[in-house]
Design goal:
This protein has eleven helices and 15 strands. It has 320 residues and is α/β, with parallel strands linked by helices. The strands form two sheets. The protein has an eight-stranded mixed beta sheet with strand order 6-5-4-3-2-1-14-15, covered by helices on one side. Strands 7-8-9-10-11-12-13 form a seven-stranded mixed beta sheet. Strand 14 and strand 15 form a beta hairpin. This is Metallo-beta-lactamase domain-containing protein.
Length: 320
């Protein structure tokens, strides 16, 4: 009798295991969708607007560097910059499902290590569909050839490489992404002849504005005064006016001028910087300029991960 019962239970267990194995892709997909839809809701205290269509942006606390993850209502994801090293993977683990192995867009703003240093780790860990970069070559960095080679390997494996060398607008899931800079091929851009060599890579930073409904978010990389002045000379106030500014160059004294902030008139600003970093970012000068512009400041060195929920007519921000 015991042997018969053991046989029945073993057979039943094997059937269950076989069923789970055969349906593993479907189970994983369902769980992934549930997990991703709930992870921000679990983190969010914003009960009033839960369930409304929104774009979720996580300005990640990765120390001194930059990394932002955007997620659209249909699940499309875009990572803008990758921190200085593989710490980006742990940071992404705080806001992504462990079953998520794909990032749709990887945008690399410019070739400073605290922005692109973790990109090789991201490309090795995730399937990246589109790699977005300016094409600027930084020959002074020993790590940069590894970064370029990894991009080439990803393209061979099916990823698409997109070079930002002119002004362009993309439509992604009922939103627009407007790339304002570089508006010309970066290797011959006239702006670079006007800046110091030490500042050159900062002023190659991709600058783009995400618009969802009435709300606009500006991503700046390490944009400094020279690039800001160029943008103000080329684009109208209505183009540059935004609701939230990802402050350029971690809040350094050489970014976010009074004139630039006056045109942008952001209600909110996020600053990505490490605690007690050796550069003194964000500087008091930049903080005072933001205060004079009546801008509410959110700092990763004080708040940790900064979670932004962009609705068609409102923005909600909290920290995690």
């Amino acid at each position: 009798m015991k042997n018969r019962l053991f046989f029945i239970l073993t057979t039943l267990l094997l059937c269950i295991v076989a069923l789970i194995y055969l349906q593993r892709d479907e189970i994983q997909t369902v769980y992934h969708k549930f997990f991703v839809s709930k992870i921000f809701e679990r983190q969010s205290k914003n009960v009033e607007h839960q369930g409304e269509s929104k774009i979720k942006i996580a300005f990640l606390d990765i120390g001194q560097g930059d990394a932002s993850l955007l997620e659209w209502p249909d699940g499309t994801q875009m990572l803008v910059d990758c921190a200085i090293d593989d710490r980006i993977l742990e940071a992404l683990g705080r806001v992504m499902s462990p079953f998520d192995h794909t990032i749709d867009y990887l945008v690399v703003s410019h070739p400073d290590l605290d922005h692109y240093g973790g990109c090789v780790d991201v490309m090795k860990r995730f399937e990246v569909k589109y790699i977005v970069y300016t094409g600027y070559k930084k020959n002074t960095s020993q790590y940069f050839p590894v970064f370029l080679q990894t991009i080439q390997d990803e393209v061979k494996n099916g990823a698409e490489y997109i070079e930002i060398d002119h002004e362009q607008t993309w439509n992604i899931n009922s939103s627009t992404l407007h790339f304002l800079y570089p508006d010309l091929p970066i290797s011959t851009h006239p702006l670079l002849s006007k800046v110091k060599k030490t500042d050159a890579s900062n002023n190659t930073s991709i600058l783009m504005i995400l618009q969802y409904g009435e709300k606009k978010i500006m991503f700046t990389g390490d944009t400094e005064f020279e690039e800001e002045n160029y943008l103000m000379s080329k684009y109208s106030t209505s183009t540059l006016d935004v609701d939230l500014l990802k402050v350029g160059h971690h809040g350094s004294a050489g970014s976010s001028s009074d004139a630039f902030l006056k045109i942008l008139s952001p209600e909110y600003a996020t600053i990505s910087s490490g605690k007690e970093n050796r550069y003194g970012h964000p500087t008091l000068r930049t903080l005072h300029r933001l205060e004079r512009a009546n801008t509410q400041i959110w700092r990763s060195d004080q708040k940790g991960d900064i979670l932004v929920y962009v609705y068609a007519d409102k923005i909600h921000i909290e920290n995690h």
